[in-house]
Amino acid sequence: MSPGSSWRSWWTFAWVAARRPRVVGAFCRLVPFLVCLTLDPFGAAARTIFVTPTGAGPGYGADGRLAADRTESFSTDTMRTVLPGDVVQLLLDTPDPAATTVYRAHVVLSRKTSLAPDSIVIRGLGARTRLIGRSVEQIRDCPMPEDGTERACGDLYAALAAPETPDLLAALFGSAAARTLPSERAAGARPAIPIGRTGRLADAACLDLDRVDGVVVEDLTFQDCWLVAVRALGSRRVTLRRVLVIGSSYGLAARGRPGQPADHITVEDVTWVQDVSGYDEASLSREGPFRCRDGRMTALGCPGLMWRSVPWAVSHHGVYEHFNGALLGGADLEGPVVFRRNTVLSAYNGIRLKASGCEDLPASSLSPATCPYNGGLWISENLFSYVRDNPVELETWSTDAHVARNRIHNAHAWFSFDDMGGGPVYVYGNRGWFDDMPALAWSGSASVGPACRRRPVSAPPDAAGFDPVLDRRFDYLKARWLPVGVEAIDASGRVDRMDVEEQSCAASVAGRVVKLALPPRGAAPDTYRYPRRGPIYLFNNSWYLRAPVTGIGAAANLRHWNNAILFCEPGTPGYAPELCEARPKTFDAAACGREFVQADGLGRFPGARGSLPFFDCFRWLPVDERGRDLLDLASTFDHDISSNGFPQGFGGPPTFELQGRQGDPGFRAPERGDFTLVPGALARTSACRIEEADDGHLNCRTTPADTAFAGAVAPDGRLYEPPASPHFQPPD
């Protein structure tokens, strides 16, 4: 028993309850209901449980002073004794005030629920207490074959696992077996913690939360916790706060399911550096600034292997797929979900939320009743820098999502909403800029690591054009390496091969602000999702771009108002010819639209001046799975400012940017992310103010020009404030 801990009078019963649920259930059926209610820890005094890696000995605070004469071990066994309201305090195991204590045990907190509102708190000493996990190679436990063929390293169970696309997030959440003892499971219970061969994926997290209601993880450092730092299954009221995550596919991966909801998920004030290859790793801190390997100090992070050297598709579904994660990855989260004040550096995605439980529903049947996931999202005040894919990615379904006041530096496709139903989504007050480009050797001064290089082979025919070192996928669910160039093998044995062009270094280097798409070839009717419940509102954002506003798709139910856009053209701050040219240099509609149900009408549409496209590989109207125009999803663009002006001839309506203005918005130093306005800036005024109508929709209402402004920053330097409405009031 830890010093300062207070045993409760009902402790023995709680101990039995955690280990013998059926015994306790029988007991409760034999005694009056109110007696059983008194056994809940509601209102009981909380304990502080002091832990060190091995326990037994003393524990010390950050200043080296003795905090506890005797400690428990930080282990699954210790966590079984923890009750709501308790604080698990990780301590140093040495009085040396400069030392760091390393915790290496994989810990599971399981089946903690209570009538009490109190949460369990797992608290560290910041950078001084580090949870260390396992490497990617240890998780795979399967050397890549040298001959390009398949190699299976799993046991019989892995071989017979349900065939499915080898998605990393799905593998983390797959229910294969449980870490709990047989005596702890209710009859017929479906286990929550997945494992692969000999516990492979059970240990793919540093901390597992299994059906926990109320837990806060704070003031810790997670290092090399591949594949995930914290995995939460069927858990609610989960908070990750003031944490540094170094490495990991996911910082927090959370999933709900019917009967085991996952809601009230919060990630705040967390710093995540996924790819550390460009950093002086020993000096990493949550607060920054960050020291790059070339000696630079920066608050914006450092380019590394994933940004500089690896093709986009290789980190998406190739040998570096372990990067294809996010600080928060969620499946079937019911909301609210709060993701705020985080720093995401050198990562693949920032936040990625799926509604997996709705993927098989007809698109026309989706509603908050049939798909109660990804509702009430607040993604605000984050920094995303050197993000190879999407800072924000919402998949399948999302409603009432706010993406506000974020800073985006050197990212690929900033806001990904392709194949997403639902709406509304509100994107406002964001600032985005660049000073670098991924993969290509655009400048000899580009720091940290060589530019992307591939070594494709010409034989055998099935592998021709692929790089046998890069174009390999590891199926974490089945514990096997797929053959070179194979993306997936379905249940019938049909092989889906990678796209050679997509694997190239030149693929996915231009990016775009808003990522939308069109139905793929062969899509069945009523399967592709568009935001029909409400529009995607993009208003009062400030952007400095070398990429189009949107492309590789259509404008589906967008409301694009009061945005201030500066395109990188000769004479603009930070201009470099290689960095700011349109990519690909030659537009090919058939090539860019080869995956869609039709490529007709796709085009490259620059503004009235300049060379960079405003829209690229783009058509105005979205289409259904048969290629028919969807007139009811037409978009609206107006009152924006564009330094290049606006495109024509793309099929838009006469009202497209009728009140739009061509000219320099007047940003002070956009190449450095400073979007405050200089005196006399064009963006200091606007004839449109965004207001909420009685029915909840937003309108761009005509107003005197000196009472509104364009972009994210007001003339007085303050960030844009959204309409004064309960819909725009974030959770506490």
Automatic annotation (TrEMBL):
Top-level taxon of origin: Bacteria
InterPro entries assigned to the protein according to its UniProt record, in alphabetical order: PbH1, Pectin_lyase_fold/virulence
Name of the protein in question: Right handed beta helix domain-containing protein
